[in-house]
């Protein structure tokens, strides 16, 4: 039993195949090699919207009994979290996406599309390395179209900084303020990570994002396993991971869930908590109106987050000209739907993407793999934009039995590799009231206001 990670109310351990056999009577044999045990302090419910959209990535899950003997075994496996193990109330077996994806060929798997079997890729690998990592992309940003609401005759508007900068960068100010008990006097630019780089970027942008996270991982990147102790992301593995993330389709799905609370793009994005909370307090729900920025429509894709701008902050603050060009509309959807989409978005912003790689150190590919066509996720021809990225991957979905078990991708260039992508942390957030998110939002904005005063006295807007 090996510690994998922990969240606010749960802790996860990787199980060996021998340990997993204790529950063999409950599981198909081909799942035993890739199981993890999750203990939690409360019963965790998954967000149905996110699960539907990410169905190919979410993996296996089965609740099991939890007794004192199992609690003690987990506590002994990772004494640092012994107290949390002893206090756990629920246990479940889940997919271990950090497991070596080569084992898919050894334990069976059903391919849902035609293609060369994994055996052809891995039988000729006398030497290989393995790497498993967890990536938390966090929340993507686009300039909002809905900039305010009218509630019971009172107009409420978004804070201006939200019209130009991502929540992730603002959250860093709050974290540094909490840690140092003071307001930071500078904000790093162009050398920091922005979720837009990963979730909305092209191949080179994704490479940049992974490079930033490898240098400053924080809580957004963790190496779960590596063949060599201390091994991290190098240039080669970054190229492979960036190609895998693009080809798997996970990034666009997460971006849509975060922006729209849906698996696909919609006409109207998720309403910001600053406005949704005001709406929730309306005495007359039928009189609520949205305040829409007339100049924002159609500009979402071209707008860049200011946290990556080379302009001075004082100039960035002036990029919101035209906000006065607004009009009022009746909400195009009901309050309940807006709340549902908001909570789906919140879950999607907290999702972790797990990538496991097995990379051949030297391999001669069979003739059948020497010049394969390129495939998109829908089977159509796909153009590779960057020569640095893997230029000829075969994309295949693998399932074990009837249970979705992550997306597995075989890569053939620049090195042969087999990779698997899965997602975790899909827990619904319904137990947290809107007021909790509203108060956190106010705290984040207060940290920004303090930062303006300390670092840029010329700000008076």
TrEMBL record:
It catalyses: 1D-myo-inositol 1,3,4,5,6-pentakisphosphate + ATP = 1D-myo-inositol hexakisphosphate + ADP + H(+). Keywords: ATP-binding, Kinase, Nucleotide-binding, Transferase. It is an enzyme of class 2 (transferase). Its EC number is 2.7.1.158. It comes from the Eukaryota. Coiled coil: none annotated. Phosphorylates Ins(1,3,4,5,6)P5 at position 2 to form Ins(1,2,3,4,5,6)P6 (InsP6 or phytate). The EXKPK motif is conserved in inositol-pentakisphosphate 2-kinases of both family 1 and 2. This is Inositol-pentakisphosphate 2-kinase. It comes from Trypanosoma brucei equiperdum.
């Amino acid at each position: 039993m090996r510690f994998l990670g922990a969240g606010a109310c749960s802790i996860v351990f990787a199980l060996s195949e021998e340990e997993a056999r204790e529950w063999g009577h409950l599981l198909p044999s081909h799942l035993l090699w890739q199981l993890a045990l999750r203990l939690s302090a409360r019963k965790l419910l998954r967000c149905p919207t996110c699960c539907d959209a990410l169905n190919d990535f979410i993996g296996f899950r089965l609740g099991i009994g939890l007794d004192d003997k199992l609690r003690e075994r987990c506590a002994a496996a990772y004494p640092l979290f012994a107290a949390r193990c002893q206090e756990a109330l629920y246990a479940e077996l889940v997919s271990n996406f950090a497991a070596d994806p080569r084992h898919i060929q050894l334990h069976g798997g059903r391919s849902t599309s035609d293609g060369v079997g994994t055996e052809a890729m891995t039988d000729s690998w006398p030497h290989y390395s393995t790497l498993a990592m967890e990536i938390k992309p966090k929340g993507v940003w686009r300039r909002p179209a809905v900039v305010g609401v009218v509630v019971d005759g009172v107009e409420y508007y978004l804070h201006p900084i939200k019209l130009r900068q991502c929540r992730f960068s603002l959250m860093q100010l709050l974290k540094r303020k909490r840690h140092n008990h003071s307001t930071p006097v500078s904000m790093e630019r162009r050398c920091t990570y922005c979720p837009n780089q990963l979730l909305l970027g092209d191949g080179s942008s994704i490479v940049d994002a992974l490079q930033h996270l490898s240098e400053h991982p924080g809580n957004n990147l963790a190496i779960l396993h590596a063949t060599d102790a201390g091994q991290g992301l190098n240039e080669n593995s970054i190229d492979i991971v960036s190609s895998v993330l693009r080809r798997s389709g996970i990034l666009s799905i997460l971006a849509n869930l975060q922006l729209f609370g849906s698996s696909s793009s919609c006409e109207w994005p998720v309403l910001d908590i600053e406005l949704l909370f005001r709406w929730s307090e309306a005495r007359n729900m039928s009189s609520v109106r949205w305040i829409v920025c007339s100049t924002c429509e159609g500009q979402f894709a071209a707008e860049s987050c200011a946290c990556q701008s080379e302009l001075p902050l004082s100039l960035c603050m002036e990029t919101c000209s035209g906000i006065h060009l607004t009009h009022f509309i009746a909400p195009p959807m009901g309050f309940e739907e807006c709340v549902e989409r908001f909570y789906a978005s919140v879950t999607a912003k907290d999702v972790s993407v797990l990538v496991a790689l097995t990379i051949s150190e030297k391999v001669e590919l069979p003739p059948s793999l020497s010049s394969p066509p390129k495939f998109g996720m829908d089977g159509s021809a796909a153009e590779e934009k960057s020569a640095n990225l893997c230029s000829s991957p075969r994309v295949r979905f693998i399932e074990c039995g009837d249970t979705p078990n992550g997306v597995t991708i075989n890569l053939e260039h620049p090195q042969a590799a087999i990779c698997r992508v899965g997602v975790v942390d899909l827990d619904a957030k319904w137990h947290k009231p809107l007021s909790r998110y509203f108060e956190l939002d106010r705290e984040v904005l207060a940290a920004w206001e303090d930062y303006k005063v300390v670092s840029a006295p010329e700000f008076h807007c």
